[in-house]
Structure to design on (354 residues):
């Protein structure tokens, strides 16, 4: 078996790049550097910024910043908000998908009333995805809306047995639903949360061993995508009296998943489906010709904070030994990342806004 492996450029449909308003945690320059180091060439950025990407003015201005500063291809989500339902159609022209937050998490975006949900499902174009942060019985609300409106709904960061089993049942019934799971919910549990404190706190929270095992049991079937939910916060914020939920993930996802392949938990073909083919198809994202990730599959490394390119500078996986190292990334024929040549990193503005 050759030690060098070539994968297509990976796609992450769930990242928080913190523009505007959270640039001390991350911005397009640092976040897309982290993406490339992690083997991702096409990523989608969430709208829970400050102010949120819920109005045409903010979305438009953020797209302009992105086009000057991204190193890989980035698409922006619009955020659903009860105050701005009348702007949804205009937002759709500038966004790759709509995000609806049904449950509490970082930032003020929240939809708790039915009229707003109706508005979203009536006004958002059918050919663009609606993604939901839905935990527990909110998953049933999302499935109900997908059934009533007969349109696709994507569930973010599914983490528990009941949720994945409900989505499996909905798929069995022929409903157009898809879901993602995160590496942290696949590799960590509430036991790690106790050890990590605020550094192991995110939404949805780390769950039980049984929940984690059930996600793995659905990895070859119900799970459609691996998404990182890259949600950087600074160590100072995590050490504060009111630490925000969220952990970085762009630079650790592929090594962790390659290690799982090595351990026989999924096949390499399935990894490529979950991290490139399915997310691109589900969100209707453009193909990236001549785009590859070169991996040294035999290199064993210890994940470490000081090697990260994300501005927050820490990972809950620090100290874990993984197998599989991203050596080089090529985007549209250009080398955009080389582990041995920092100067090869694509400059800000080299990527495209989707
Ligand atoms: C995310 C964030 O920090 O923006 N935090 C998290 O714990 N996942 C928000 C989210 O994805 O729910
Ligand atoms: Zn969320
Ligand atoms: Zn998120």
């Amino acid at each position: 078996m050759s030690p060098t492996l070539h994968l297509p450029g990976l796609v992450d449909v769930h990242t928080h790049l913190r523009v505007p308003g959270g640039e001390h945690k991350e911005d397009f320059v640092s976040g897309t550097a982290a993406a490339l180091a992690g083997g991702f060439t096409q990523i989608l950025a969430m709208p829970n910024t400050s102010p949120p990407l819920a109005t045409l003015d903010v979305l438009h201005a953020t797209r302009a910043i992105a086009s000057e500063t991204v190193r890989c291809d980035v698409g922006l989500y619009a955020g659903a908000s009860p105050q701005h339902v009348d702007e949804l159609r205009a937002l759709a022209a500038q966004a790759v998908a709509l995000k609806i937050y049904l449950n509490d998490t970082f930032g003020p975006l929240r939809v708790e009333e039915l009229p707003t949900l109706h508005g979203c499902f009536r006004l958002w174009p059918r050919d663009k995805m609606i993604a939901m942060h839905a935990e527990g019985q909110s998953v049933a609300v999302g499935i109900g809306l997908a059934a009533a409106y007969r349109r696709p709904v994507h569930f973010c960061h599914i983490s528990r047995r009941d949720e994945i089993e409900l989505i499996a049942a909905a798929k069995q019934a022929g409903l157009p639903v898809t879901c993602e799971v995160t590496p942290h919910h696949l590799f960590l549990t509430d036991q790690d949360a106790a050890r990590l404190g605020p550094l192991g706190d995110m939404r949805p929270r780390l769950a039980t061993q049984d929940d984690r095992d059930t996600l793995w049991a659905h990895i070859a079937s119900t799970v459609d995508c691996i998404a990182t939910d890259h949600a950087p916060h600074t160590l100072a914020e995590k050490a504060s009296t009111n630490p925000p939920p969220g952990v970085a993930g762009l630079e650790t996802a592929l090594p962790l998943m390659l290690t799982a392949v090595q351990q026989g938990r999924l096949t390499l073909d399935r990894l490529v489906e979950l991290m490139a083919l399915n997310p691109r198809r589900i969100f209707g994202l453009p193909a990236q010709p001549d785009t590859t990730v070169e991996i040294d599959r035999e290199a064993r490394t210890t994940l470490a904070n000081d090697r990260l390119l994300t501005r927050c500078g820490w990972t809950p996986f620090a100290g874990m030994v993984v197998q599989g190292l991203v050596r080089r990334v090529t985007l549209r024929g250009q080398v955009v990342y080389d582990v041995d040549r920092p100067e090869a990193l694509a400059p800000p503005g080299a990527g495209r806004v989707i």
Notes: The mean pLDDT is 98. The radius of gyration is 19 Å. The first helix runs from residue 28 to 37.
